[in-house]
Structure formats: C-alpha cells, structure tokens
Design a protein that fits this description.
Helices cover 45% and strands 18% of the residues. It has 455 residues and is an alpha/beta fold. The longest helix has 30 residues. The protein binds guanosine-5'-diphosphate. Guanosine-5'-diphosphate binds next to helix 8.
C-alpha cells in the first residue's frame, strides 16, 4: 500500500501563510488527529473541497495555531489520492510542530517531487505536463509562465499523442491484414503508409523546431552589452535590471567578469550579459573578462554596443566596433545624452557604418531605457507558439523523427516488412517516452528527483 506523505509546499518562512500538504490513504485520518475544527465534526466528515476553521495541535495535544484545512478526496485531487491541505501561519515552528505530529501519526516525509510523481503514476498528468509544472515554478517571466502553462494544459502532450496514435493505427492495420486474411479488411498499401509516416515526421519536426525558441523563453534571450570601459554598460545593465547589481564607478575597468541577469522586459525573459570593458589589459583577471566579453558578443542573440557621447570616438571604441560584423543582431546605444547638447559628428559616421538593427540615444544614468526595453521585449518568441523547453523531449522528438525516416526509406526501397515495422515501432516507443506512456520507473524517478520538496 502507498505511504501517506507530508511536506510543506509553500516557500521560505517566516511568511504570512504556509501550506502543508498530505497525500495517501491515511491523509484524512492523520488530519483528523492534528486538526480540530471549531464546529466539532472532523474535517474528513464535512464537505470536501471547502475550507474549515479550527485548531492545529502539536504532538502534546496543545494548540499551536488557529487556521484552515481542506480535504480533496481521491480520485479528483492533484495526486489522484486522498489529499489534504492545511493553511497555517507561516512560522517555521508551527510547520515543524505540525509535521512532527503528522509523522507521529503515521505520515512520512515526502521526497522531492513526490506529489507530482504520484499525480503522474495515477494518470492525472502525463510526463510533459509534469515537466511543465517544474518549468512553471521556475519561470522568470510572464512569457515563460504562459509557455509552461500551455504545456501543462497539454499543448505538447496532446500533439505527441495524436502523432503516436496515427503511427499506431498504421501498425495495427498492418498486423490485422496479416493475421486476419479471411476478414474483409482494406489492403495495406505501402504508398498510403508512406504518406502517413511523412506527415507524422513533418509534425514532429515542427514541434522540434520549437525547442530553440522554447529554451529562449525558459532561460531568457541572451543579450550582451559591450563597449569600452566607462561607456556606461553597467549603468545600462542596472537601468534595465532595475537594481544595483553591477558596481558602477567612474574608474575604468570595474566590471571584471560577465554578469548575467534574467529580467522580465514587458513580460519577456531577457538574459542580459554585462561584459567587462573591451580593451586590452595587462591584468590577468581583466584579460579573462575581456575574452569572455568577446565570446558573449559572438554568441548572444543580440548585442548592445554602448558608446559615450560625451567624448571623442577613441581607438578603443573602434576596436569594439570591429566586433559588430560578427554579431547576429547589433544594436547601437549612444549613451550620456544628458552630457551633450548636439550629437558629435562621429555619431552619424558610426550610425551609417554598420547595419544596426536599431539605434537609441539615451542616458543610462537617468534610467531612460523604456524604448530600448520595448525593442528587447520583441526578441522573445510569441506566446501562441508551441514551445519545447525540455532537452529530454527534444532529444526524443529528434530520435522518433529519425526512426520514421528509416521506416519511410525501408518502405520506399521495398525492403521486408520487418525493417519497416521495426523502425515505426521504435518511433511509437520513443513518442510514448515523451508523454510517459512507455517510460520506465528509473526515468520517472530521475525527472521527479529534480523537483522541490512539497511539489
Ligand atoms: P562601464 O565601465 O561601461 O560599465 O561604465 P559605468 O556604467 O560603470 O559608467 C561609468 C561612469 O559613467 C559612471 O560614473 C556612471 O555614473 C557614468 N554614466 C553612465 N551612464 C551615464 C549617463 O547616461 N550620463 C552620465 N552623465 N553619466 C553616466
């Protein structure tokens, strides 16, 4: 019989309210032992899915909190089992005493991800939906949360299931034709089978294409800020991030490393990389920072090149500008507008020199970055797209597509039915692993082990 698990599902304490959950066959009995509703009747005998007010008891029988509790009977609960939630005050002492009492009455501590694992094992969620729960919890922007919730609602799982069922229908037709020769079945035609396999492969490839964009949503679109020391990169970083994370001083070369911060710009996740000043240096630490800055500039999705309008265009600036042809999407920021009354002549020359995707004149110090932020938010994928965020799912999609390609080749070359069937079955199996229909226990263990306790 499954154990009854208990854990605190809410975040760090002290806080206003903490939520303790229990799931399993004894969840209601344990709740009745630790929680006494003011009305007298145990919560398990009262209306389910309703909040009930009462006293929470420590192991010694004394009251440790006045709070709310609710019961969610199987099978329509998050885990598919009897589930209980207690909403107490967010005190470490209250939660510890309550859990202690629950454990004394037979509950056991929940390992990481155990609630969601049980939801998967009872068929409440498929694996793509369970992975979406983890993505949703870790989402750093509105767009990331929307993508995770779409997956939680089945945007990936339902598509994969539909493709898998098409290939399965093809296989069962083949076997039926072989096994029931007397029946009046439609003949199995290789040409039709090839069409089904090609359509399925192309649907898989479309899903797989959403992986790169899905990663951008989950991890943030990488945007590097480059420029000579003192151009105002850290100030720009801080203005965009809305905090004082990078140290801003007027001494050249203060940002020695690449600072990264995912910021939510208009709901879109942007991973800003603030690089050390791009100039040759004798100091070893600074040289390493400069090298990383070059790398960041070459690998980032967009690169913001910051120039200081209050001075001349220096050889150091020209060195920075030499990197621009290597950048995928260069953006020019002419900074410190507050220090100049008219644009210096070099600003026009630089603006014309490269194919900038956008040019902004601003003062980072006075936090004038709205237009730039607006432009950056447009770099993120659109929320309507079906996005794949899991490397596991992407790998399986690719392997299933490859297996279908082999099946198509075998069918075309008129190979034996065995070769064609083996590859099509392999694809079905790989697709089943995405949703969990054919996943083994080790895989489930590995996926849920990455969750936090209480989820
Ligand atoms: P970094 O070395 O490129 O990261 O440059 P910082 O952001 O550290 O800025 C260097 C100096 O320029 C600091 O004293 C900033 O306060 C100043 N600074 C940055 N942006 C502006 C701006 O828009 N206007 C003015 N007046 N000063 C700025």
């Amino acid at each position: 019989m499954a154990s009854t698990i208990a854990a605190c599902s809410s975040g760090s304490m002290p806080c206003a309210i903490a939520i303790v959950r229990m799931s399993g066959p004894e969840a209601f009995a344990v709740l009745d032992g630790v929680f006494k509703p003011t009305s007298g009747k145990p919560v398990s005998q009262r209306q389910s899915r309703h909040m009930h007010y009462g006293r929470l008891l420590a192991k010694d029988g004394l009251t440790i909190d006045l709070c709310l509790a609710a019961c969610f009977p199987a099978p329509n609960s998050y885990t598919g089992e009897d589930l209980v939630e207690v909403y107490c005050h967010g005190s470490q002492a209250v939660v510890a005493a309550m859990l202690d009492h629950c454990f004394a009455l037979g509950a056991v501590p929940a390992p990481p991800g155990e609630f969601t694992k049980r939801a998967f094992l009872s068929g409440r969620l498929d694996l793509t939906e369970a992975e979406a729960v983890a993505d949703l919890i870790h989402s750093q922007s509105e767009l990331g949360a929307k993508a995770a919730v779409a997956q939680l609602e089945g945007s990936v799982g339902s598509r994969v299931k539909a493709i898998r069922e098409n290939v399965l229908a093809l296989l069962s037709h083949f076997y039926a034709v072989c096994d029931y020769t007397d029946e009046d079945l439609d003949p199995f035609e290789y040409e039709k089978a090839i069409t089904v396999l090609e359509d399925s492969r192309s649907a898989l490839d479309t899903l797989h294409e959403g992986f790169r964009r899905g990663r951008l949503v989950r991890d943030g679109v990488p945007v590097a800020i480059i420029g000579k020391p003192n151009a105002g990169k850290s100030s720009l970083f801080n203005a965009l991030a809305g905090s004082q994370r990078a140290i801003v001083t007027d001494e050249a070369g203060t940002t020695r490393d690449v600072l990264e911060e995912v910021i939510s710009v208009g709901g879109a996740p942007i991973r800003i990389l603030d690089t050390a000043g791009l100039r040759e240096s004798d100091s070893k630490a600074e040289r390493m920072g400069v090298e990383r800055a070059r790398m960041a500039a070459m690998t980032a999705h967009a690169v913001i090149c910051v120039l200081d309008l209050s001075g001349e265009l220096t050889p150091e600036d020209r060195e920075v500008l030499e990197l621009i042809p290597l950048c995928e999407m260069p953006v020019l920021v002419l900074n410190k507008t507050d220090l100049c009354t008219a644009l210096p002549s070099w600003a026009e020359e630089v603006t014309a020199m490269h194919s900038w995707k956008a040019v902004f004149q601003l003062s980072a110090q006075s936090g004038q970055v709205e237009e730039l932020a607006q432009w950056l938010s447009g770099l993120a994928p659109k929320p309507q797209e079906v996005l794949i965020t899991s490397a596991r799912q992407a790998h399986l999609l690719q392997s299933a597509s490859d297996a279908l390609s082999s099946a198509i080749d075998s069918a075309r070359e008129g190979m034996t039915a065995d070769a064609f069937l083996m590859d099509a079955e392999r694809a079905v199996n790989l697709l089943g692993q995405i949703t969990g229909e054919t996943a083994d226990a080790d895989l489930a263990h590995e996926i849920f082990g990455r969750f936090c306790v209480g989820k």
